[in-house]
Amino acid sequence: QVQLVESGGGLVQAGGSLRLSCAASGRTFSTCAVGWFRQVPGKEREFVAAVRWSGGNTYYGDSVKGRFTISRDNANNTVYLQMNSLKPEDTAVYYCAARTRLPCTSGGYYYTGRDGYDYWGQGTQVTVSI
Questions:
Q1: How far apart are CA 63 and CA 101, in angstroms?
Q2: Run of H or E residues at 12
Q3: How far apart (Å, rounded) are the C-alpha atoms in residues 29 and 36?
């Protein structure tokens, strides 16, 4: 089992920045990758970014490329999502998720879909005002 706790959400004006954190505990040594997804009511959960635990390969959704940066702190089992140049359309509940299953290769295909993850956090609200 892997437990995930998100933090860092809040209210920010358009153009501002926020940094989300995802703290992992439990069987973290089995983690292949950690991803961030977001969801607004009535819509599908959308892939935002992911990072492989070993190797550090990163992957981004098209809507956040160039604005968001995902990083990891292996020593503290924490993944960060730095969000810059925020837009009102970034408003959503943000979830982090952990993949522990195989395969765990560098192919991005495995990390961009919600079905590729085994554990989820409770989510943190991000609201971007005009």
A1: 27
A2: strand 10-13
A3: 19
C-alpha to C-alpha distance for 64 and 32, rounded to whole angstroms: 22
Q: What is the pLDDT of residues 80-121, one digit of tens each?
A: 999 999 999 999 999 999 999 988 888 778 899 999 999 999
Question: Quick one: how far is CA 15 from the chain centroid?
Answer: 20
Dump the DSSP string for 54-106: TT--EEE-TTTTTTEEEEEEGGGTEEEEEE-S--GGG-EEEEEEEE-SSP-SS
d(C-alpha 50, C-alpha 34), whole Å: 6
The overall longest dimension of the chain from CA atoms, in Å, is 42
State residue 57 phi and psi, 5-degree precision: -60, 140
How much is the pLDDT for 60?
Answer: 97
Q: What is the DSSP letter of 67?
A: T
In whole angstroms, what is the distance from residue 4 CA to residue 73 CA? 14
What's the rounded mean pLDDT across residues 72-76? Answer: 92
**How high does pLDDT run on average in the chain?**
95
CA nearest neighbour of 48 among 7, 92, 3, 99: 92
